[in-house]
Specification:
Number of domains of chain B: 2
CATH superfamily of the domain at 182-310 and 442-514 in chain A: FAD/NAD(P)-binding domain
CATH superfamily of the largest domain in chain B: Probable tRNA modification gtpase trme, domain 1
CATH topology of the largest domain in chain B: Gyrase A, domain 2
Largest sheet of chain A: 7 strands, mixed
Strand content of chain B: 35-45%
Largest interface: A-B, 54 and 53 residues
Oligomer: heterodimer
Number of helices of chain B: 4
Number of strands of chain B: 11
Strand content of chain A: 25-35%
Distance between the termini of chain B: 39 Å
Largest sheet of chain B: 6 strands, antiparallel
Shape of chain A: elongated
Structural class of chain B: alpha+beta
Structural class of chain A: alpha+beta
CATH class of the largest domain in chain B: Alpha Beta
CATH topology of the domain at 182-310 and 442-514 in chain A: FAD/NAD(P)-binding domain
Helix content of chain A: 10-25%
């Protein structure tokens, strides 16, 4: 936790009698004044009420300054009342681990004791040393990084990158692990409605009436959208808010409707698959740990209705970013919904009636309206009349040329615009609140994400959904239908159509009789008119912000155009406009406006940029969901695992399996053996007595049917037709390209039944490949596959005394060498349970692999272990198994092979059934490159000094004195100390390896000073180190 | 058959309960994977006593046995553990020379029952299928996933699911479901 957080989130109780909120109205709104809450912001305690957002509560206390901007550290305030907020980013923290930076204060629901701090300032919000950037802003133009951090080259890594990294980003990432829980849920519906304003409610009602399965989600705590702040309109003779309550009650009563408040549709993916995040507990003072903090809903919707509304546009004029400058609709929302006055004396800059609505609502609550500066030349209509009637000072044909104030706006410069476009003399008006009504931008983010084409609507001066690429339709503000009646009827139409498209029809259309004052919704785009340098300030020196979060200005965009960034996508990236965490919600259209002006093109000619997920920032937690800790991956354990754990085994991960790697014994002094000592002991025990090994994880496939042998002939390189019942064979399988894919011992249980084993890691892919060939190539073969990996526990008993250990336990099986020779199998019973008993050896010793039904594995293991006590039976793990097989030169697929080894490369050419007409990979083996004698071949290595254990992966060279880069002959694939031989051994893949026996090569290893190399001399030997004649097998 | 007692990864026959949903580990079954063409399917029908469902993703139950369609030539047969040997013998004798594959997988997998009005909701935490009764009716079964584990999911009642899972994945399935039952107060 950063120091600044520690002091701020101290333990002092928050409810220490904060002062009454001076900017709270006395009545009205959707807050609960009877439920006061206390919260802290930057360490100071304030009062709020239930139903507040952090933003509305701060405003109720007169706090506008809530953050510093990213690049210039300019003081910033609350500009919006929703998810489009670019400025008011705060860190909310419950404790050191539960700390979330960059939350929009406008979306943070207030709870008692909430603690938040501002960001991007030091030492304090009011006095921030980073604000020096603002003074030197002329040195930080668009593309500053690209222009500045270029030379010298050596500075890139050590100077520039750390510098940029420390400056980049807002807020601080908590360092403690996230203790909260996150879950996911899949959901399916006929119609997903995004947004629960008038259009969304009407759509959901219509779809639900039709009998569709409906999910209605809304990012806000309370559903209703704009209706929650609408004091003027009536629907069906009821006040808007009452209609909302009735509509929600009706929807809640539908069995097939799911209402998801506090749920943001953040991502739109192919096949109408959408990601929604539900914030389940962030609004609670003391959330239960049993409820997940957030839930990712993965919704598969037949049809989507996008009713996400429209966002108000800010205006582009100099110093439009000071605290106290906000969107007119936001100010209206704060007054009407939250009972909060965002100021005492307001100036309204309006391109449409939204400014009038806000001005009237504020005036009604006693706010002085210093001026309504209407950008329109000749406005008319009911709102203008009402303003005039209320005595509000309206001026038309105006522009804003600048603002003043340091931590809060305290004045605005207004000027009139003449018919010819000439800007008249400016007049300064004092105020503590400046509202911007620049027009509306339909919230088309998700439509754009769905790859639908946007269409520029000249009348609206906005992009609206055009041709859909997926089953989605927009309604209401998102479709440019700004009026209430339009939104309701558009929503209803979309709901009916969506339900019908989903195959559900039968809705009886409703008629919504609405009374709502008509409003002009026209808009302006681009920088507002500004006087020439001779009449006022030099326009090239003032900064009108376009992207408030990334601090990009109209000037930056114009510079980008001058420097040749013509494409909107290039200009966007060069200036980073629209690339902040707010995804350009407030900046996208103003950017297009400025680019249009700068390039002398129309907006459609400028084009538009692509919106990408997420709609609002999303936690990593929801993507992880439950996949953390124990549930990160399934941990597969064999039935023998508990025994191994109880006997001190050290486990390793092999795929998802936990396998016993070795069994360290305790010395008399209590210390445990290290791995080398344990492995050496286990190896010698197997070579000299008997060992027991859990081989349960081996993949097993039962291949059954009259064509089983033919199928095996085609899948494996080996011949199978003549393998007798009760006999086993080591099988090798290739991919079509001729490279080794997998290997394992195969036993013939019956003429039409094979028991196939695969590597542990290859089990699933081998079965898939076999099934694939059967279904697509050889549908004529009568043979069927069943995975029996988990049916059988496999206990390997290996060593000269193996037979003695098993003999007393088996029933109906003759273990003698004559009856059960090497590579034979028998069915019978062991310890009274059925077994498939294989005489096979991966160690070079007399060996058996006992298959028993998995449920009996543990007890048969224990019985064998008991039976082996007179012979000192020793449990061994995978590490010992590796050493023992390496001593015999047996390969491990994936260790000696790397997907580029042919059977001949790894010394398995003998296994190929030469007489077979075909097998998978056969043709590839005849390519000339596959038969090149210079290919890497399996070879053995011994260190010349008889002591050094080579590093696996180390390279082999012929001449130790070569300069880097050396020409490499091969690499070490396996390397161990062999206890039975008393020296290290290694296997390698070496160019022409079989013809190099006796040669001395070198393994160059980095040693000592950086860059210096110490070669290790090795001798090339045949890969079978121990008992090359195999006499120990046939006993 | 043997003195040894079968052990399972899920040692205790535990039941995890929550409001509206409970998870129960079921006792062992005899299980077979039958694979083969139509003629053999008929023979196995007679041997097993249940007409193997030919409709995709459907299970059929008779008395204490069930047959679950897993693929065009693949069925999972479930029966009381004591019937294990008899089923194999009967099928083999009835089929005569007909080609088919019958493999004992009694120990390969274990079963859970997840039941209660919230059972489908809990499953939806890790299963992407539409579990609405209209899309996944009673009697439907399919091989599918629960998060990172493969399962066979069979709806045995409007609010009841039978889950088959390979034994080494069973603890994961149990713990995953339990994690998703927590918010309902187990």
């Amino acid at each position: 936790m950063p120091d600044s957080l520690t002091t701020t989130f101290g333990t002092t109780p928050a409810a220490a009698g904060p002062a009454r909120e001076p900017f709270r109205t006395t009545a009205g709104g959707r807050i609960d004044r009877a439920r006061p809450l206390a919260f802290r912001f930057d360490g100071k305690t304030y009062a709020g009420v239930q139903g507040d957002t952090l933003a509305s509560a701060l405003l109720a206390n007169g706090v506008h300054l809530v953050g510093r901007s990213f690049k210039y550290h300019r003081p910033r305030g609350i500009m919006t009342a929703g998810s489009d907020e670019p400025n008011a980013l705060v860190t909310v923290s419950r404790d050191a681990a539960r700390t979330t930076p960059n939350l929009r204060a406008t979306q943070v629901e207030l709870y008692d004791g909430l603690a938040a701090i501002s960001q991007n300032r030091f030492p304090s919000l009011a006095f921030d040393v980073g604000a020096i950037n603002d003074r030197i802003s002329s040195l930080l133009p668009a593309g500053f990084y690209y222009k500045t951090f270029m030379w010298p080259r050596g500075f890139w890594d050590r100077v520039y990158e750390p510098l940029i990294r420390s400056a980049a980003g807002l807020g601080r990432v908590p360092t403690a692990p996230d203790p909260d829980r996150y879950l996911q849920r899949h959901a399916h519906c006929d119609v997903l409605v995004i947004g629960a304003g008038p259009a969304g409610l009407a759509a959901a009602l219509a779809a639900a009436d039709a009998g569709a399965r409906v999910i209605l989600c809304d990012e806000q705590a309370e559903m209703g959208g704009s209706l929650l702040a609408d004091r003027q309109s009536t629907i069906a003779g009821r006040p808007a808010s009452a209609w909302v309550a009735e509509a929600l009650a009706e929807l809640a009563g539908h069995e097939r409707v799911t209402l998801l408040p506090r749920t943001t549709a953040f991502g739109y993916y192919p096949h109408n698959h959408l990601g929604l995040v539900e914030r389940a507990t962030d609004h609670l003072a003391a959330p239960s740990t049993e409820v997940p903090r957030e839930r990712l809903w993965q919704v598969r919707a037949r049809e989507v209705v996008l009713a996400a509304g429209a966002l108000e546009r800010p205006l582009t004029f100099p110093e439009n970013d000071r605290p106290g400058i906000m969107l007119a609709d936001a100010a209206h929302t704060y007054v009407a919904r939250y009972g909060v006055l965002p100021g005492r004396r307001a100036v309204v800059a309006a391109a449409n009636d939204s400014g009038y609505r806000a001005a009237l609502a504020l005036a009604e609550e006693g706010v002085e309206i210093a001026a309504i500066a209407d950008l329109r030349r000749a406005p008319s209509g009911a709102w203008l009349d009402a303003a005039r009637k209320a005595g509000l000072p309206v001026q038309t044909g105006m522009t804003v040329t600048g603002t003043s104030g340091s931590l809060r706006v305290d004045g605005v410069s207004l000027a009139s615009v003449e018919d010819g476009g000439e800007v008249g003399a400016t007049r300064d008006v004092g105020c503590d609140l400046l509202l911007m009504a620049g027009g509306w931008t339909p919230s088309v983010h998700l439509f754009s994400q769905s790859l639908g084409k946007l269409r520029f609507d000249e009348a609206l001066q906005a992009y609206v959904p055009g041709i859909a690429a997926q089953p989605i339709r927009a309604a209401g503000g998102a479709d440019g239908e700004y009026g209430l009646e339009e939104a309701l009827s558009g929503g209803q139409r979309a709901g009916v159509e969506a339900a019908a498209a989903a195959g559900v029809s039968g809705a009886s259309p409703r008629v919504f009789v609405t009374v709502s004052p008509p409003a002009d919704t026209s808009s302006v785009l681009g920088a507002l008119p500004h006087p020439t340098a001779s009449r006022g300030r030099d326009p090239s020196r003032v900064r009108a912000f376009v992207d408030f979060q990334n601090d990009s200005t109209a000037k930056d965009l114009k510079l980008a155009v001058r420097e040749g960034f013509r494409s909107v996508e290039h200009a966007k990236r060069y200036t980073t406009t629209g690339m902040a965490t707010d995804q350009g919600k407030t900046s996208n259209m103003p950017m297009l406006g400025v680019l249009s002006q700068a390039q002398g093109k129309t907006i459609p000619e400028v084009g538009f940029t692509t919106f990408r997920p997420p709609f609002t920032p999303t936690t990593f937690g929801i993507f992880a969901g439950a996949a953390r800790g124990e549930l990160f991956d399934p941990a597969r354990r064999t039935p023998i695992h508990p025994w191994a754990a109880a006997h001190g085994a050290v486990f390793e991960d092999v795929g998802l399996w936990k396998r016993a790697r070795y069994f360290p014994q305790r010395h008399r002094n209590g210390a445990a053996e290290d791995m080398d000592a344990a492995v050496a002991r286990e190896c010698l025990a197997v070579r000299q007595g008997v060992g027991i090994f859990d081989a349960t994880t081996l993949g097993k496939i039962e291949v059954v049917g009259p064509d089983a042998a033919e199928f095996m002939n085609r899948m494996y390189i080996n011949p199978w037709a003549k393998l007798g019942v009760g006999r086993c064979r080591y099988g090798v399988m290739l991919r079509e390209d001729g490279f080794v894919l997998d290997d394992g011992v195969v036993g013939r249980i019956a003429p039409d039944r094979f028991h196939v084993t695969t590597t542990t890691g290859g089990a699933a892919s081998v079965l898939n490949m076999m099934e694939d060939y059967l279904q697509t190539e050889w549908a004529d073969l009568q043979v069927w596959l069943t995975s029996v990996t988990e049916q059988w526990a496999v206990i390997a008993v290996q060593g000269p005394r193996a037979r003695d250990v098993l003999a007393p336990l088996v029933d109906g099986i003759d273990l003698s060498a004559g009856a059960l020779p090497h590579m034979a199998l028998a069915e019978g019973r062991i310890c009274g349970v059925p077994t498939r008993l294989f005489r096979v050896s991966f160690t070079g010793e007399l060996g058996f692999e006992v298959n028993v039904p998995a449920g009996y594995g543990r007890q048969v293991w224990e019985a064998i272990h008991e039976s082996g006590q007179p012979y000192g039976i020793t449990p061994y793990g995978t590490e010992t198994m590796h050493v023992l097989r390496a001593e015999k030169g047996f390969i491990i697929v994936g260790q000696e092979t790397d997907g580029t080894a042919t059977p001949d490369d790894v010394g398995l050419g003998w296994a190929i059934g030469k007489a077979k007409p075909d097998f998978v990979g056969k043709r590839s083996l005849t390519r000339s490159g596959m038969m090149d004698p210079g290919r890497k071949q399996l070879a053995g290595l011994v260190s010349a000094d008889g002591q050094t254990v080579l590093e696996e992966g180390a390279q082999l060279v012929g001449d130790a004195r070569m300069n880097v880069p050396m020409s490499v002959l091969g690499h070490v694939t396996s390397s161990y100390y062999s206890a039975v031989l008393g020296h290290p051994i290694a296997l390698a893949m070496l160019a022409g390896g079989r013809s190099r026996h006796g040669e001395t090569l070198y393994v160059p290893m980095p040693r000592g000073l950086a860059g210096s190399i110490a070669p290790i001399a090795v001798k090339v030997v045949p890969p079978v180190f121990y008992d090359p004649e195999g006499t120990r097998l046939d006993v | 058959m043997s003195d040894l007692v079968e052990t399972a990864e899920l040692t205790e026959a535990e039941t995890i309960g929550a409001d509206g949903v409970s998870l129960e580990a079921l006792p062992p079954f005899a299980r077979f994977i039958f694979r083969g063409p139509e003629g053999a399917a008929q023979a196995v029908t007679e041997a097993f006593g249940i007409s193997l469902p030919r409709e995709a993703c459907r299970a059929r139950v008779a008395a204490d046995r069930a047959a679950l369609w897993l693929g065009p030539d693949e069925w999972l047969l479930l029966a009381p553990q004591s019937d294990e040997a008899a089923i194999a013998d009967e099928a083999t004798s009835r089929a005569g020379a007909l080609p088919f594959s019958l493999v004992d997988v009694s120990h390969r997998q274990v079963a859970f029952r997840l039941s209660g009005p919230r059972a489908a909701t809990v499953l939806s935490g890790g299963n992407p299928l539409d579990l609405d009764l209209s899309a996944f009716p009673v009697g439907m079964c399919t091989r599918t996933v629960l998060a990172k584990a493969e399962i066979v999911l069979w709806r045995t009642g409007p609010d009841s699911f039978h889950i088959e899972v390979w034994r080494s994945f069973a603890p994961y399935v149990r713990d995953f479901l339990r994690e998703h039952m927590r918010e309902f107060g187990n």
